[in-house]
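Listing S7. Sequence submitted for prediction.
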Amino acid sequence: MAGTDPRTAFVLAGGGFKGAFELGALDHLVNTLGILPDVITSASAGSILGLVLSQARTPAECSARLSDARDDLLAMTRTDLVFGEQAWLTELDQTTAADAIRRLITERTTPELPGGNPDPDAPSEPRPEGHRWQQACDRWSEMAAVARQLPAATRAHKERGRPGTSVLNLDPFEAAIRGRTGSGIAVVHPELVDRPGLDLRMAVTAVKARETHYVCGDGTLVGPDARTPVPDATDATGFDVIDGAIASSSVPGVFPPRLLGADTYVDGGCLQNIPLAAAVTLAPDRIFTVIAVPVSEPHRSASLWAAQELGFLSTQVENLATPLPAGTTNTVIEPTLEVVGSFEVHPGLMLIDIDYGRMRAEEALADLDDGARRIITEVSDTITLERDRAWHLEQTCIEDGSATPARVTALRDLKRSVCSAVRARVALGYPEPPGARMWFEGYELHSGTLPEGLPESFDEPDTDPAG
């Protein structure tokens, strides 16, 4: 923070609930390495996380705020605490169109599980070449078909003076962080954000100006250079830093735009999903860029296909190409797997993604050659993927109320794979991740009850991962 050497910037990218990965990475930076930010630049979901962290100035405060952010993220899996429905969608309640729209936003953003369905009892289905790509096209074609069902009057609906059509709003979340509800989501205090010692820039996309602006910690707006005040930005709308975070997260078509001063704003990720340029402008000595959505597409999932079509993937590549001043370093911490969808809200998957972010941050900051980095990346991906597959198989058992011998055997194999990968990571010189034993001896977190037929725990491995 203020007075530290070197001057440090955290760049927090957008990605919806994929921000769980970023939270894990920040936990390693702050709580393990003691690295604190002097600058935070952020977009979309990264702005929500950055807003919470920007209330802190000391190591103890940063640790407490990250704990708040973790609790917030898990509380937000109750979608009623975060999302409200726009009036026009409520008016269409119990119609095919309304049901399809809700399903497209939640279920249809779920990433496809690499390797297919882990359930050995599932009927086999033909998997023609290119089926993932076709599935993605089908899903987003479905969205277009749903949109065509909406009457013109509904499409033109305007709510609360905010132009444009949207499906949901962030009103419940805003009410929670402003302290208007007892939802369990931590209150944000703008006066703490505004204290000296940290420069905050949350990216927002100006609809009229067609450029990126940034909301600062004091609630003011600055232009694309992240420094120059935006003219006519302080009118009677009376916005503050919380309004800025909501605007930064207002995905077009999903959430309504937000009026800040003389312009209307949408998600900052439209142009600056990785606001590295803003961080560079604020002259840090070192930058840690934490990304939630894979920059290099690992496979053609529906959510990544949509991100590509909307321009977010190419935007990320362009954002990362920002030149650095001489002497400035940028450490990029990014996933190569998708664990959760942008609007997917399963607590167990969130925790897996948090652990993934923590491991990936540990690897990104290690002094490794390219060969060793590829190996350790493959190991952490294996741990994460096998835990992800185990979660889905456990969830299938819960939903069916059945744990057949074949399913127990498949789960045991997945747990052994996780254990082997954890051992491999330890053998490469990394400490055993916190809580790793439960990854292969116990079960992932679920909201339902495990059915009879599953063992209380899985066999303890023959050898200790630490030795």
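Caption to Listing S7: primary sequence and predicted structure tokens for the chain studied. The longest strand covers residues 199-206. The CA atoms of residues 245 and 253 lie 17 Å apart.
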